[in-house]
């Protein structure tokens, strides 16, 4: 036998019991709003902690989008449900291996991994670089400050006769006189021929004194030039004077060089700003450290002598 439904009168009698035991302030809408806000805040905080948890792996929309893009590029169509599930499985396996590898520090000492991480970090920095406004006046000023990059340097064709052994100054000058008199020099010395050597190369190879003397040398005449390594027997065959560059024909090149320089400065500044988060310890080169005596006990890291010769600096 079914239980009869309560009548309207009995329902009215029960209704007052619904709020029994609860104070009147608990039914305020403002309180309900505050409790709902606290609940949402707690849920958001929990989700945020899970997102930053290294033990939590989220296979979500970003993974699916990348999987679909890779699949479509290879097959020419979107993956079906089974194929997408397989792609998710592959991504999850790779993510697990990646995190486990980092946990085991397999990236330590691996130059390829280090360079790839550096490259990706630098790419993020490059994305924030931006060229300032420029005009021809700015480019001309930069061109003049860096004119050495664009001017054509003076170039020299010359020969050098290298005497064997350790000849004295008298021997060298006598050999020069014989060469200028027409005597063949290849029987007494090895002959070296140089073409189109720039002035800076002469300074680097022989020293500024010889380079300066070469500018005023007579073409076709053997001379004993003073160099940083002693006397050199040389003959100038040809000299091409330096040619200053003009801005207009090189404007495109100058613009590209200026762009590269400005972005490089911004990149370096960004890296230096990041470096301020670290304490940098500068140690002396290992070659300058004295070796410990044979049989001497080595000090443990962090001991009294481990920081000797080192200096700690805040990154600037």
Structural commentary:
With 316 residues, the chain is an alpha+beta fold. The chain has a domain at 152-240: Chitinase A, domain 3 (Roll). Helices cover 47% and strands 14% of the residues. It has 10 helices and 6 strands, in the order H-H-H-H-H-H-E-H-E-H-H-E-E-H-E-E. The chain has helices at residues 8-14, 29-51, 61-75, 81-103, 111-126, 136-145, 169-180, 199-206, 208-215, 251-275, and strands spanning 155-163, 189-198, 222-227, 230-240, 279-282, 311-314. The strands form 2 sheets. A 4-stranded antiparallel β-sheet has the order 2-1-4-3. Strands 5-6 form a two-stranded antiparallel ribbon. A hairpin with a 2-residue loop joins strand 3 (222-227) and strand 4. Helix 3 crosses helix 4. The longest helix is centred in the C-terminal third of the chain and has 25 residues, at 251-275.
Describe, in short, the structure shown.
The chain contains 10 helices and 6 strands, in the order ααααααβαβααββαββ.
Indicate the CATH class of one domain. Answer: Alpha Beta
Q: Which consecutive residue ranges, at least 5 long each, have pLDDT under 50?
A: 1-20, 32-50, 295-316
Amount of beta strand: 5-15%
Q: Total number of helical segments?
A: 10
The second-level CATH architecture of one domain is Roll
Count of strand segments: 6
Mean pLDDT across the residues is: 78
The first-to-last residue Cα distance is 89 Å
Radius of gyration: 40 Å
- Using the coordinates shown, work out and report the CATH topology of one domain: Chitinase A, domain 3
- Indicate the overall shape: elongated
Order of helices and strands: HHHHHHEHEHHEEHEE
Lateral strand order in the biggest sheet: 2-1-4-3
Helix/strand class: alpha+beta
Largest sheet: 4 strands, antiparallel
**Approximately how much helix is present in the residues?**
40-55%
């Amino acid at each position: 036998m079914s239980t009869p439904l309560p009548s309207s009168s009995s329902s009215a009698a029960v209704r007052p019991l619904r709020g029994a035991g609860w104070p009147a302030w608990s039914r305020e809408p403002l309180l309900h709003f505050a409790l709902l806000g606290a609940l949402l805040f707690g849920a958001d905080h929990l989700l945020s902690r899970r997102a930053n948890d290294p033990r939590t792996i989220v296979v979500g929309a970003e993974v699916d989008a990348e999987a679909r893009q890779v699949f479509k590029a290879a097959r020419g169509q979107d993956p079906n449900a089974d194929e997408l599930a397989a792609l998710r499985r592959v991504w999850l396996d790779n993510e697990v291996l990646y995190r486990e590898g980092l946990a085991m520090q397999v990236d330590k000492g691996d130059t390829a991994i280090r360079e790839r991480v550096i490259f990706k970090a630098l790419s993020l920095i490059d994305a924030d670089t931006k060229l300032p406004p420029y005009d021809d006046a700015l480019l001309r000023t930069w061109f003049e400050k860096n004119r050495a990059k664009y001017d054509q340097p003076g170039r020299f064709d010359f020969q050098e006769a290298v005497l064997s052994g350790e000849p004295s100054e008298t021997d060298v000058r006598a050999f020069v006189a014989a060469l200028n008199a027409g005597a063949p020099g290849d029987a007494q010395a090895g002959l070296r021929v140089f073409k189109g050597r720039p002035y800076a190369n002469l300074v680097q190879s022989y020293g500024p004194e010889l380079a300066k003397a070469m500018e005023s040398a007579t073409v076709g005449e053997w001379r004993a030039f003073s160099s940083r390594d002693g006397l050199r027997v040389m003959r100038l065959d040809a000299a091409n004077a330096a040619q200053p560059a003009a801005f207009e024909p090189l404007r495109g090149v100058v613009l590209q060089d200026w762009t590269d320089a400005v972005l490089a400065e911004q990149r370096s500044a960004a890296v230096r700003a990041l470096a301020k988060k670290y304490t940098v310890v500068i140690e002396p080169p290992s070659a300058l450290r004295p070796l410990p005596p044979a049989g001497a006990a080595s000090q443990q890291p962090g001991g009294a002598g481990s920081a000797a010769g080192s200096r700690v600096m805040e990154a600037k």
